[in-house]
Write a structure and sequence with these properties.
Helix content is 32%, strand content 20%. The protein is α+β, with helices and mostly antiparallel strands and 658 residues long. Among the domains are: 276-401, Phosphorylase Kinase, domain 1; 408-647, Transferase(Phosphotransferase), domain 1. The strands form 8 sheets. The chain has a 6-stranded antiparallel β-sheet. A 5-stranded antiparallel β-sheet has the order 2-5-6-4-3. A 5-stranded antiparallel β-sheet has the order 12-13-14-16-15, sandwiched between helices. α4 packs antiparallel against α5 (207-219) and α14 runs antiparallel to α16. The N and C termini lie far apart (57 Å).
């Protein structure tokens, strides 16, 4: 194979490669390092240097290494280091760790003081940086390799077969989930040898990002590998390879987990794949629920059988009691219709958040069931991660990762605190919520409708990354289904779409409506329930639409946003108004919204009047009955309780529609 890197690395690095004498630096064939000299340098024994060494050392001590993907960060502020490692999808765990172990020594040897570097080899990629790289599609620097000789004779037939192979691989790889985006395939042709192909993306990318990265790589094939019976293009975020020989194992190894229900350390953020035993339990539960319609009341024995306690998710109740100071009031950080939320600390030092469901709340059992079944399957950086659960008698606990900056409503609706969120931070939060919803709607193996998306259910981590929380009201629908009906309306007034509140019809577009309301709240700093003008109160959608129609969208923007791009703010208002259209067909899907937020060359359609404008006459052919509204409770999980009301009389989550 001839290596054609997109740029040459320095002569000094080449000499180092030739004269490696360290007993720790293992020689790797075709190892290609890129030292990003323009991304900043660090000095030996500096804080950044020590953080980098700690981070790379933890790479091999991780006991939850699943599907060959690893991401982590260590340190704070300007000395924080982030790393991503990816092994080829067919590598076994030991082979993967050996490859990464060798790569980390070689990469730091070649790049002794660069804050950002990437090392390529056929079986694995290792990269680290002083910036956030998780979830970001990176296309350079790239490695391009083609076979020497082995020119094909029937070029037209070969190009046709190769094009079909690469496009098929792209489609399969981008359909993977947050654990593995990997595909292999063999194609045969009467006049050509069998052609073997492989495509892979880092699983932190969305389906759309993966497809875009692979499309770009495929587009480079004609210029690098014309007439060649073998080629490989590797980018930081994706890779493709094809050969006339069988170069990969036919089956990717299964996920590996030795988790005991406790995370390693709060400083290490690991992309966790669901253990095999959990998957088996969930499948058995799904089959059970499909065959037998759930009853409205739980008996202890039957309920515990459904949950199927297993060591990977269940915590000892007394352990959580100690961690939360016996659920003391000083540890309470919120309270909603389901019960209270407490902060806690495990014996290994990890901070946790614990939902303690009210023992005399019927809907509490149902929400507990929903969250265990749903959230255990979901792994995305913009979703709050479920660590496990605990059962004891009528006690039901959910244990989550602790998110230190509380909920969005705690900050954005407070006149003092919201000044902490400049436009860059608010745009980042909007983008994060969009990514989380896109995962729920399209990229996860299940299609999930949240149904209670609101400011109090958006938590903010230490870097103000948005994390969608509270799946107690979520519903599953089958992949090809567009909408569902319900006889019980659940959610929060002001965020619910018209068709849902009026007719009980919900779909992914119902969540899009709620997202649009959230976007307008984040930009304006006002709750959707009303903006006061003297003695008059105008709801947020009416206020936003009036100013948009009158050509004064700047009036919608929070006065504390003194810096940042006004054009970007107004574009986000435009997107928010498109999301709250009354007609479902006029609301864009989350995949389009993600494009709108990231690509400013994309022309936005003209919005029409939103649904639910104050003062507009409506004929409500179906409103919730007084019986359904009688259970309304406050559902904020932050320390300042939201004034929005949630209707919590929910039915059991159904794995299949009736």
């Amino acid at each position: 194979m001839v290596v054609l890197p997109s740029r040459f690395f320095c002569f000094q690095s080449f000499l180092l490669l030739m004269i490696m004498v360290s007993d720790q630096a293992r020689a790797q064939p075709n190892f290609t390092p890129y030292c990003m000299n323009n991304k900043g340098n660090y000095t030996v024994n500096s804080t950044y240097h020590n953080n980098l060494n700690t981070l790379l050392s933890n790479l091999l001590s991780n006991t939850e290494f699943n599907y060959g993907f690893y991401n982590s960060s260590y340190g704070q502020g300007i000395d924080k280091v982030s790393a991503i490692a990816l092994c080829r999808g067919d590598l076994k765990r030991d082979e993967c760790l050996t490859c990464l172990n060798n790569s980390r020594f070689n990469l730091t040897l070649h790049c002794p003081n660069q804050k950002e570097a990437i090392g390529y080899i056929e079986e694995c990629i290792l990269r680290y940086s002083n910036r956030t790289i998780l979830g970001e599609m990176e296309v350079s620097p790239s490695i391009i390799m083609s076979n020497v000789g082995n020119d094909v004779i029937d070029v037209d037939e070969f190009n046709k077969v190769l094009g079909s192979l690469l496009n098929s691989l792209r489609t399969k790889a981008m359909s993977g989930d947050s654990r593995l985006k990997y595909a292999t395939e063999i194609v045969s042709s009467p006049n050509l040898p069998d052609l073997y192909g492989l495509a892979q993306c880092t699983p932190d990318l969305s389906s759309q990002q993966c497809g875009s990265c692979l499309s770009g790589a495929i587009g480079e094939v004609p210029s690098c590998c014309d007439r060649k019976l073998g080629g490989r293009i590797t980018r930081p975020s994706c890779s493709i390879r094809y050969e006339g020989n069988h170069f990969y194992e036919d089956d990717a190894p299964p996920p590996i987990s030795t988790s005991d229900g406790k995370s390693n350390t709060s400083k290490i953020a690991i992309a966790v794949a669901v253990p095999v035993v959990v998957v088996l339990v969930i499948i058995s539960i799904c089959i059970y629920l499909r065959v037998k319609k759930p009853s409205k009341k739980f008996e202890n024995d039957d309920y515990d059988d459904e949950i199927e306690t297993n060591e990977s998710l269940q915590f000892n109740f007394d352990t959580i009691r100690v961690a939360t100071n016996d659920f003391s009031d000083s540890n309470k950080i919120g309270e909603g219709g389901f019960g209270a939320v407490y902060s806690g600390k495990l014996t290994n030092g990890q901070d946790i958040a614990v939902k303690r469901l009210s023992m005399n709340s019927g809907q509490g059992d149902i929400e507990f069931k929903n969250e265990v079944l749903l959230v255990a399957k979901l792994q995305h950086r913009n979703l709050v991660r479920l660590l496990g659960f605990s059962l004891k008698g009528r006690e039901r606990l959910l244990i989550y990762e602790f998110v230190p900056n509380k909920s969005l409503d705690y900050i954005i609706f407070d006149q003092t605190r919201k000044a902490q969120l400049d436009w860059e931070m608010r745009h980042k939060i909007i983008h994060g919520i969009a990514r989380g919803l896109l995962y729920l709607h399209e990229d996860s193996r299940l299609r999930i409708i949240h149904r209670d998306l609101k400011a109090s259910n958006i938590l903010l981590d230490d870097e103000l990354n948005a994390k969608i929380a509270d799946f107690g009201m979520a519903r599953l629908i089958v992949v090809d289904q567009t909408q569902e009906n319900t006889n019980r309306i659940v959610g929060t007034y002001g965020y619910m779409a018209p068709e849902y509140l009026m007719y009980g019809q919900f779909s992914v577009k119902s969540d899009v409506f709620s997202f649009g309301v959230l976007v307008l709240e984040i930009i304006s700093g006002h709750k959707n329930s009303g903006i006061r003008h003297g003695e008059n109160v105008e709801d947020l959608l009416s206020f936003a639409w009036r100013n948009w129609r009158e050509g004064t969208p700047a009036n919608i923007i929070d006065p504390t946003l003194n810096n940042g791009s006004r054009n970007q703010m107004i574009r986000c208002i435009h997107i928010g108004l498109l999301c709250v259209q009354e007609n479902i067909a006029n609301r864009p899907p989350m995949s389009t919204i993600a494009l709108m937020l990231s690509s400013y060359s994309l022309t936005l359609p003209v919005p029409s009047e939103p649904g639910f404008l104050m003062g507009r006459t409506r004929s409500f052919s179906r409103m919730p009955s007084s019986e359904e509204n009688s259970g309304a409770t406050r559902s904020s999980e932050s320390m300042n309780k939201s004034t929005q009301e949630s209707i919590n009389k929910v039915s059991i989550t159904e794995m299949y529609p009736r």
